[in-house]
């Protein structure tokens, strides 16, 4: 069935206009983003198939090339899907800009939208002012963490430049498991000691997993 064969009041755009966006299903929302289907499949059926087969989580982490391997998804539609999820990440991330970081949960809420679904480990540093508000966030390295990659010089260089009062270390575990590795503990200890020498306190090191996190401060581990 083609979209034009569906009675107008049952089409996603018309339902949005009449009933509001919150009433639409995930597939209907995606169909509005994708706009058009193929000769064999209308955009609503395509959206149902994509969400049923891959789920929103997998779709959100697919690359441009991976999406184009899905039946019915060309470069234009793949770009639309990537832009949709990236916009959502940036929106979620922006909500916590310039808000005070008071707990490890605040760190998770601030960083998870950017780090949670990544397929490689990203090491981020949050630079805080005297009121614990984020001055700047910066990705220091990408890839499996080790002491040769995470050097105190790189971690504190920007903190000194930004006149940060303190910093928080954050990185993700693509496996979804937030428990720290031996390397995570070693790096944390090195950076905490370095911060003491530079009078820039390392307040915490938070590991982002799949809808969970681990805080060295909460566990009293340095």
Summary, kept brief:
The chain is α+β, with helices and mostly antiparallel strands. The chain has helices at 12-19, 26-34, 43-61, 64-68, 75-94, 104-115, 152-161, 182-198; strands at residues 122-128, 134-142, 166-172, 201-208, 213-215.
Describe the structure.
- The chain has 222 residues and is an alpha+beta fold.
- The protein has two domains: 3-93, DNA polymerase, domain 1; 97-215, Cytidine Deaminase, domain 2 (3-Layer(aba) Sandwich), CATH 3.40.140.
- The chain has helices at residues 12-19, 26-34, 43-61, 64-68, 75-94, 104-115, 152-161, 182-198, and strands spanning 122-128, 134-142, 166-172, 201-208, 213-215.
- It has a five-stranded mixed beta sheet with strand order 2-1-3-4-5, with helices on both faces.
- Helix 8 links the parallel strand 3 and strand 4 (201-208).
- The chain is elongated, with a radius of gyration of 22 Å.
Comma- or semicolon-separated keywords:
222 residues; alpha+beta; DNA polymerase, domain 1; Cytidine Deaminase, domain 2; 2 domains; 5 strands
């Amino acid at each position: 069935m083609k979209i034009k064969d569906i009675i107008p009041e049952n089409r996603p755009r018309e339902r949005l206009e009449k009933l509001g966006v919150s009433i639409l299903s995930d597939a209907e929302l995606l169909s509005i983003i994708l706009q058009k289907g193929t000769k064999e499949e209308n955009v609503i059926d395509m959206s149902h198939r994509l969400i049923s087969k891959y789920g929103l989580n997998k779709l959100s982490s697919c690359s441009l090339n991976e999406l184009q391997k899905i039946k019915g998804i060309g470069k234009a539609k793949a770009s639309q899907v990537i832009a949709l999820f990236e916009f959502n990440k940036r929106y979620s991330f922006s909500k916590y800009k310039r808000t005070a970081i008071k707990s490890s949960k605040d760190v998770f809420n601030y960083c998870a939208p950017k780090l949670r679904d990544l397929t490689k480990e990203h090491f981020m540093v949050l630079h805080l002012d005297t009121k614990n508000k984020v001055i700047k966030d910066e990705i220091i390295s990408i890839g499996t963490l080790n002491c040769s990659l995470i050097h105190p010089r790189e971690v504190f260089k920007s903190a000194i430049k930004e006149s940060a009062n303190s910093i928080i270390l954050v990185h993700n575990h693509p496996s979804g498991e937030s428990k720290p590795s031996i390397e995570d503990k070693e790096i944390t200890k090195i950076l905490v000691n370095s911060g003491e020498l530079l009078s820039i306190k390392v307040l915490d090191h938070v590991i982002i997993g799949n809808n969970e996190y681990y805080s060295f401060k909460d566990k009293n581990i340095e």
